[in-house]
Target: Phospholipid-transporting ATPase
Amino acid sequence: MGSVLSACGLNFKKEKVQGERHLRANDREFNLSFKYANNAIKTSKYNIFTFLPLNLFEQFQRLANAYFVFLLILQNRHKNDRQVNNRKVDVLIDGQLKNEKWMNVQVGDIIKLENNQFVTADLLLLSSSEPLNLIYIETAELDGETNLKVKQALTITGDLGDNIDRLAAFKGEVRCEAPNNRLDKFTGTLAVEGQTFALDNERILLRGCTLRNTEWCFGLVLFGGPDTKLMQNSGKSVFKRTSIDHLMNVLVLIIFGLLACMCTILAIGNGIWEYQQGSSFTVFLPRQEGADAALSGFLTFWSYVIILNTVVPISLYVSVEILRLGNSYYIDWDRKMYHTKSDTPAQARTTTLNEELGQIKYIFSDKTGTLTQNIMTFNRCSINGKSYGEVVDFTGQRIEITEKTEKVDFSWNSLADPKFSFHDHALVEAVKQGSTEVHAFFRLLALCHTVMPEEKTVGNLYYQAQSPDEGALVTAARNFGFVFRSRTPETISVVEMGTNTTYELLAVLDFNNVRKRMSVIVRSQEGRLTLYCKGADTIIYERLHPSCSKLMEVTTEHLNEYAGEGLRTLALAYKDLDEAEFQAWRERHHEASTALEEREEKLDAIYEEIETDLLLLGATAVEDKLQDGVPQTIEQLSKADIKIWVLTGDKQETAENIGYSCNMLREEMTEVFVVAADTAEGVREELVNARKKMCPGSPDEAPFQKSRFGSKKPKLVLDEKADGEFGLVINGHSLSYGLQKDLQLELLRTACMCQTVICCRVTPLQKAQVVELVKKYKKAVTLAIGDGANDVSMIKAAHIGVGISGQEGMQAVLSSDYSFAQFRYLQRLLLVHGRWSYLRMCKFLRYFFYKNFSFTFIHFWYGFFCGFSAQTVYDEWFITMYNLVYTALPVIGLSLFDQDVNDRWSFQYPQLYSPGQQNQYFSIKAFGKILLHSCYSSLILFFIPYAAMHDTVRDDGKDIADYQSFALLAQTCLLMVVNLQLGLDTYYWTAVNHFFLWGSLSVYFAVSFTLYSNGMFLIFTSSFPFIGTARNSLNQPNVWLTIFLTTILCVLPVVALRFLLIQLRPTINDKVRYKVRQAKAVLPPPVRRFPRRRISTRRSGYAFSHARGYGDLVTSGRFLRRPVKSRPALFPLAESPIAENSPQTYRNIGEGMPSS
Model:
């Protein structure tokens, strides 16, 4: 039975927590005994067995949605799953390589990957085609980063090579950690031939990566399918519903209650009437034996349930889906969200969340690949106290650098990178003139790194860098005449100003997160020993010789200037070494490097010994290029009162620099808090101190919103006002404490008081936890945007997930609700499409309830005049076609085309977005107003025609006070009023709106005259009893006067109230629409804005690569030179913002406003 349920996707057993994983290579029988997951994946929510019950459960969460059971279709994720599971890979089975489907790969199998193939599962790298058993992988699908990363196999497995017999005979045993979601950590051991080897993340290939520039490699499967780190981070697919959907559930319950009340009142009335008056009518309406007033009232109750069923919004759900589908197509068709460079249009991957786009309060964004292009450029530098990189005119004034600015000519350097650009000619002149300090500066950049070169053809160099910032620095040295050409484990070859020079590489003092610097020790051809060091400026300054104090002051000014421009800075220093001193240090270094215990700590201490009394050379400034329009987009979203949180795996310095570059963090802010404590108490103290600074009167206990009686949902935390603008930066270690149950409310309160929050070094799971925290305790709609697989869990957790498509992979897009190619399109998605969708949906709902309640309440009033007999007040054909024909198209036209202001004005005044965040347009309060309005209208619509028809005669003296004539008059008045009300609600008239409105009225009169004609009565006598009613009634002036009077009485209070509200309490929409009318709908040309230079006193440390460098690798004693291979361009040409729609400028709402 259990296997059957499991096959159906229903597993009621408690999942067993897996401890240590144990597997053997090439032993399927042994590995299958542990019942590890195979390599098939499942991201769909249903299968053939669970589809109906699970989908019914989800759809029944919308009360009154039962009729949708037959309209549901299975989500198409199964197609994606089949596509992935049926990919082919070479698997070593029974001593032979066999081409197998991914789904058939088992734990313990050895598989072969070839260049540009996706990694099938989480693998232990065994061997590769490259020297030193290296491979190069691209992790764009995991983290959105396009720079290649290097992995290296153990020597003992690397010697297996591609020898199939030796690989088949390999019997290594692996003991490792249980499946988890930590992308940057792995712990395990490999036992082979009686020896045990430690395994770490450098030996592991994760599913989702792509093999690059490596002919082949072999790997041992450690984790398959759902156990892989990619799938562990993917999060659970959930059924997303909008806040309006949730509200509709409450309203449907209210409507059911209202229906029950009306039916009860009418049933009681019928019982009383039957008891008092019923006996007088038994001659005409004989009763059955045993029937009495109570039974009559009971039957009348159910009769009125049928008659008044139009108050229950069954047809509303169909109309809502049509509306959502139409607004989804607007997003797909929007040319202003089409990215020409990558041929990528915006895509609405769901049709159920459009109006939620108009209510976003919190945006959670990834950094790399989302805000930035992950392309670094060498912009500025300071050498021996002189700053380079600015362009000035003959008066000494700084000139803004544009595409037309003259670039430095590097044609004198045959090995220069043609894609590198620099604009300050003074630096080239200093190089050519042989400045000692400038040469030493670029010599350091050419030597102090762990970059690996590849020379495709003679002179055509390509650098493999652990991070793009290192590549940018080595490329800068290359263009200025110091070309890093090749390396071996013992040497570095450099072409210095056209002269080939080889340095002996004696030691690499590698970078780590604590040291924040790296050094190399080299011996020149002349025998000179030199230590070159680069690192965070604060770290380098602590190790400088006292003689550098004056130079340090000048360089510090330059560093502050660079940091103020949002650049990533780095200080450079060197030191000449004594031979005897170095040899003594080298021996101590060897002892530390071979220590079995506390090796890292001992090496750090040895490094500290020699990295002292350094001489400062200068500093570099590298720009992490933002995507086009990112600062403007963030500014616009901030003006719309949307809070932006950045959740990134990058280190703190990197994230802070990007925060300033993007205008999320600003110098004008009162304070930017940094939370970096290593203990729970330390984190609590820092959070509390920050909160008290922002709001001194803030209570110790979180202020909760009073929950509804009987609500099981957690209490909502109220917003607290901060005295000023603040930012918060918190690292992943501190965040892990902050997300604990006893600290999460403190974290939430402090973070939500800040305008901007940046979380650094966070895991994919932490990203999702932060989103869930805000969703749980804040009454706010959240949006998550990212581009890599590490963003998938965050995208799924948020109310709305947006994927950035393009070169960074498609994992985020496949899990998203909306996708496009550039972050800047987010402002159009929210401020235009989202706001319009919310406005249209709210108008639709208000109007839909109004017309249906007005229609139904007339039945209710009529019940008091027909003996509560459950007789309908309208012709049955009118009842049938009221929602289906007469009022369907006009409201659809309103819901698809209406807009309060056009897109340009929406950008000009982003405050127009705030009503959606506050649910101003549709709420329970608004619903109550609609009920009152409908009740008033129904009273007018019933009693005015009733009074007008009572004892009334025609012009020729004939009586027209009959039931049929009254029914025709009442329904005509109703249709006139609801259509006029729709006209008042319409802001933006199109030809389609006019056609639908006037066409529906025309159809009504045409159908009425046809259905009430003699011909229809003669053909279908019982179905069309209203013979001649239309022509006999509608040719009377008093009937049309009644229609006019009724319409005026219904609409006049609405017009008067709106006029008074606009004059006394105008909304932001009223003000902007007035301004549009003033400007005659012509927007003045946007002000051209130049990026202003920001002066900052903030110190910035250079952000190194995320992981340890290649120091151990380049000194490993093995040859590194690689054969020439073809490679696609790593960095595509940047897109010109001129060709795209630039974001609009912001203006104060009070400018030119009339006084109220």
